[in-house]
Amino acid sequence: MALKGLVTLEQFIVDQQALYKNATGAFSKMFRALELGAKMVNRDVRKAGLVDILGDMGSMNVQGEYQKKLDVVADTTFIEVLSRCGEVCAVISEEQDHAIFIEGCENKEYYVAIDPLDGSSNIDVNASIGTIFSIYRRKDSNYSPKTEDCLQRGSEQVAAGYFLYGTSTMLIYTTGNGVNGFTLDDTLQEFCLSHENIRIPEGGAIFSLNEGNTSDFPEGVRQYITWCKEKDKATGRPYAARYIGSLIADVHRNLLRGGIFIYPGTEKKPNGKLRLIYECNTMAFIVEQAGGMAHSGRERILDILPTDLHQRSPLFIGSADMVNHALEYLNRYS
Fold it and tell me: Which residues, 6+ apart, have CB-to-CB distance to 205 below 8 Å?
């Protein structure tokens, strides 16, 4: 039978929970909710060209970015499924100004930070997009949750992951004990273990960034890009430039093949564009658990204490050797 050796996401989580004496089943419920939300969004993404859910909503989110119709659909979907799972006290979403506190779940100990649809500028051209999420434990569940509970360092995440809606639909996640990947079997409608114990190569030959903004980058970043493009047989240069314009897709490729993704600060935006809590922290936790590195250019991403739900941060992330080399250039020319 083709099912021999098949491990579904639900079975994998149950097996992992069995390793912990005090496991309550809360993670199973949260992941079932996230899985359901991803299947619903994946369904809408697959039929996006056939129904009126492409294009702009005509409104802006808290980031000052125009919302795509699928952005709003994904945001509503994940808030609803997480609200119903009964284990989440609050949801932080890129699309919402404030944290959403779940009625009836005031004493629950987890909250979820989520970018419901990363890379939404690519929706209309059928490029890869995804959902990024992190799970945090509240400091104290003896009082009603408040915004301050949600301002924790990335090192305090208890789980992080992303769903990628591409040629296949995948889930990559970690609970701090390595990184595993699951691919959605469309016939079974189950996420099945396909990438066990993912390890990012220490080095790589891919650099990913928006070179259209080169003139606004710090001098160290410009010098590093120049170095990546130079011919040198000993180091295998020039490196390949690969940039999709979707954090989730670019980091996913480099996670599997080795490489570096850079979104630096600029003179106009010294803190860059990417959000710390539900983009940078999530990807940093995953990449570090796979043996890679994530840095802001000033400090390790996971060590930053956020002061705002939608705080931004520069990001250098990927293979450890490449990130360290980029930081050397940044420090040399700063």
Answer: 236, 237, 239, 240, 258, 259
